[in-house]
Amino acid sequence: MITVELDNFSLKEICQSGQCFRMYETEENTYELIAGDQYLKMTQDGGIVNFHCSDMEFICYWVPYFDIDADYSSYIAKINPRDTYLSAAAECGSGIRILQQDLWEMIITFLISQQNNISRIRGCVERLCEAYGEKKISGEKEYYAFPNPERLAAASEDDLRGLGMGYRARYIVETTRSILNGEISLDRIYQYRYYSRAKQELLKLSGVGEKVADCICLFALHHMDAFPIDTHIRQVLDEHYKRGFPNRRYRGMRGIMQQYIFYYELNKK
DNA sequence: ATCCAGGGACGCG
DNA sequence: CGCGTCCATGGA
């Protein structure tokens, strides 16, 4: 087990931030997470966080995953103090992190997310993993990994509709096919240095539009300028930023600001 | 019942 | 390009 003391890090807030749909608070201050084919149990008491894994797994996998080496207080310090809305939002969600999740998993997950609510997205993703993911064991915990493209290719559109994916089933089938036949290369998308290039490539996938592409760029590729505009963010922009969001000021950190706003809208009061 | 949820494809003018 | 319309599903 690894024990570390961290600033601006809250498992509860990360869990409720809506980036990862397979993280659960299983008991008070105890969280379980399945990411890709990895399972992790964590506990937190104040700033002290316990990761139930080896040193190697922590350093190679979970440090980048949780963006642990980044200093989020410096992001918060950049917020215009006269922007009372954004200041309140960042204070509310000061412990969230921009996760670095698996690209393939984020593509499928955010295809499912469209015109859908978070609790139902969780259910859809979980059923998808149970039906097509590899069964794994970590200690005494059994879980299903997120299915890789080859395994998901076994699912027909009707199969996926049977799992409650609705009209998104066709997007999943078509996107899986274009990845498997090499039309779109995940490796290439990983290697693009510029956000606009990665986004441009993602937009070629069936069912991936502006918003979903931005979520994938932010939550998998860590392109911190991605600024996904969903229905909640749209309302905030219309109400608090009628002259546009201050993009210049927050260049290189637009994504985290978006997440502070998103978290605030879902969890305030 | 009606509305809404981390939207996007498609057709139309 | 900007705009309607349709697309499943379940909870409030």
From TrEMBL:
CDD domains xrefs: ENDO3c
A Pfam family reported for this protein in Swiss-Prot or TrEMBL: OGG_N
EC number, UniProt record: 4.2.99.18
Annotated InterPro entries: DNA_glycosylase (IPR011257), HhH-GPD_domain (IPR003265), HhH_base_excis_C (IPR023170), OGG_N (IPR012904), Oxidative_DNA_repair_enzyme (IPR052054)
Reactions accelerated catalytically: 2'-deoxyribonucleotide-(2'-deoxyribose 5'-phosphate)-2'-deoxyribonucleotide-DNA = a 3'-end 2'-deoxyribonucleotide-(2,3-dehydro-2,3-deoxyribose 5'-phosphate)-DNA + a 5'-end 5'-phospho-2'-deoxyribonucleoside-DNA + H(+)
Gene Ontology MF terms in the entry: class I DNA-(apurinic or apyrimidinic site) endonuclease activity; damaged DNA binding; oxidized purine nucleobase lesion DNA N-glycosylase activity
Residues annotated as domain HhH-GPD: 112-266
Keywords: DNA damage, DNA repair, Glycosidase, Hydrolase, Lyase, Multifunctional enzyme
A GO BP entry: nucleotide-excision repair
Top-level division of the source organism's lineage: Bacteria
PANTHER family named in the record: 8-OXOGUANINE DNA GLYCOSYLASE, N-GLYCOSYLASE_DNA LYASE
Family, per entry: Belongs to the type-1 OGG1 family.
UniProt name for this protein: DNA-(apurinic or apyrimidinic site) lyase
